[in-house]
Structures are given as C-alpha cells and as structure tokens.
Amino acid sequence: MDSVTYKPKQKRSEANLKKIVDAIMKLVEDKYFEQISIIDITTEAQLSTGAFYRRFKSKEAALPVIYEQFQIQLRDWLTEKSKEWQKMELSELVYDMTEGIFRFVDSKKGVFRTIYLNARLHSDLLQPQTLEQRINDFKFLASFYTRFIPEQTPHYEESVRFAIFTLVNNAIEKCVYPEITPASGCPQNFEESITATSEMLAAYLTNKLAQ
C-alpha cells in the first residue's frame, strides 16, 4: 500500500516544485526578486503557502533551483546555436554570437538580474558547482574561435576569453541595467550596441591574430 500511495505524492511534489520555479521565473520578468513575496509566488503558481514551505524555508532558498533551471535553458540554447557557429567564418561568428547573446540576455533579463545581484548577496545559498559552470560556459563560447588560431600565436586563447568576457558583460549591462551607469553612459540603443560590440570585438581579435 505504501508503494502505491508514495509515487503519486512524489509526482505531485515534483509538479509543485516546477510550478514554484516557473512562477518565480515569470515574476522576475516584471519585478525585482526582492519585491516578490511568498504570496506572489504561490498565487502565480496556484499553490498554498504550505506547499511552498514544504519545499523551501524562504524564497532565497529557492535560488539554487532557479540557477539550475536557468543553466538548463542556457545549455539548451548554446547547444542549438553551436550547430550554426561551427560553420561560420570569424567576422560572421563574432556578429552572430554577439547578437545571439544580447538577445538571449534580453529575453531572460529578469533571471539575469536575480542571479547577478543575489549571487553577491546570498553566495552561501549557491551550489558549489555554479561558478565552475559559468567558467565552463565561457570556455565553451571561446572554443568556437580556436580553429582560427595559427600555431604559436601568442596569448590568443587568453584574448578570446577576454573578448567573451567583454561581450557577456556588455550584454548584461545594456539589457539588464540600461538606465544606470555604466550602460546609461552608452549613447547606442540596443540594436546599435550589438553592431558596435561585434565590430569592436572583431577588430580586437583580428588584431591579435595579426600579431
């Protein structure tokens, strides 16, 4: 009898967890995480507050699961884009990757904002592998440029990783915090920022290859 009743409970528990995570990820599209209450989350998820507290002791305790779900979405997107990036020449690759990352960040800016801030405020709540995953994502993006590296090109791999850092940082600042510095000091709009960033990075990488 126990085995018969346990399985539905487990399924319901997993379904409730998904509802909570989906609710938070939807709510942060329009509100700061700090402004969202447990009632907001349970109302959006159509669950009782008891169902929430059976999974998490606070909304901050849900952050590792939010990061995990975001990581899945990011890896799915990178996997899909990688099929195209493998076939591109340098200038096309730089522009397409720049545009893709800008648009991906813009589509997930609420989640990015939550991660960006709470990774600093609640670092004790993050899973140990989170930082390693971010580093691996940077390495994965940089790997598409390795085929352009002639033998014995000095420090080109480090230059590529710096270019990826600059790209991601520009996208986060422009998409997530466009109204405050440093993004507010940039005269380009969203579309112009994509073009300007890709042109800057293409020139930088081409120059490094020529050295």
UniProtKB/TrEMBL annotation:
Keywords from the named record: DNA-binding
InterPro entries: Homeodomain-like_sf (IPR009057), HTH-type_Tx_Regulator (IPR050624), HTH_TetR (IPR001647)
Keyword Metal-binding part of the UniProt annotation: no
Molecular function terms from GO: DNA binding
Domain HTH tetR-type: 14-74
DNA-binding region, residues: 37-56
Domain of life, source organism: Bacteria
Protein name in the entry: TetR/AcrR family transcriptional regulator
Organism: Aliikangiella marina
